[in-house]
Design a protein that fits this description.
This protein is globular. The chain has a domain of about 90 residues. The chain is α/β, with parallel strands linked by helices. The chain contains 4 helices and 5 strands; from the N terminus they run E-H-E-H-E-H-E-H-E. The chain starts with about 30 loop residues before the first strand and ends in an 11-residue tail after the last strand. It has a 5-stranded parallel sheet with strand order 1-2-3-4-5, covered by helices on one side. Strand 1, helix 1 and strand 2 form a beta-alpha-beta unit. Helix 2 runs parallel beside helix 3 and helix 3 runs parallel beside helix 4. The chain is about 30% helix and about 10% strand.
Length: about 140
């Protein structure tokens, strides 16, 4: 006999529940999108208060973790890499010490990514609020 749910679908036919974003701490610092090391240097000069540097949408997939580490240099833990739909890339970024990742992978891949308790609270499934650049 097949295990069924009140919806009438068997366990194997039911879609996995969506996993929501989580963070170890609220992202209360301003988030600026940058794409070059010069942007990071410029922001440090123009915005002396703590901030988070975030890559452009999907840039992790296009340029990779080494590129992002060069862009943010010693500020890797105060940065967010947008990994698009790649849970594998998100895991590599977290292992490299990047503060947070944005990952829009399938529910199954997100479930696997969330299984790592050490990094679970640093995975975002949506882009945080972006702060306009200081003038």
């Amino acid at each position: 006999m097949t295990d069924t749910h009140p919806t009438g679908l068997s366990l194997q036919e039911r879609p996995e529940p969506l996993i929501r974003s989580s963070t170890s701490q609220p992202l209360t610092k301003p988030v600026f999108v940058i794409s070059r090391q010069a942007d990071m240097t410029n922001l440090k000069t123009r915005h002396p208060l703590p901030f988070l540097a975030m890559s452009p949408m999907g840039a992790g997939n296009s340029f990779g973790v080494p590129w992002w580490l060069q862009v943010v240099e010693e500020e890797r833990s105060a940065s967010i890499l947008d990994c698009g739909a790649s849970a594998a890339l998100a895991r590599l970024a977290l292992l490299a010490g990047i503060g947070w990742v944005v990952c829009r992978a399938s529910p199954g891949q997100l479930k696997a990514l969330y299984s790592d308790e050490l990094h679970r609270e640093r995975i975002l499934t949506e882009v945080p609020q972006i702060t306009p650049w200081p003038r």
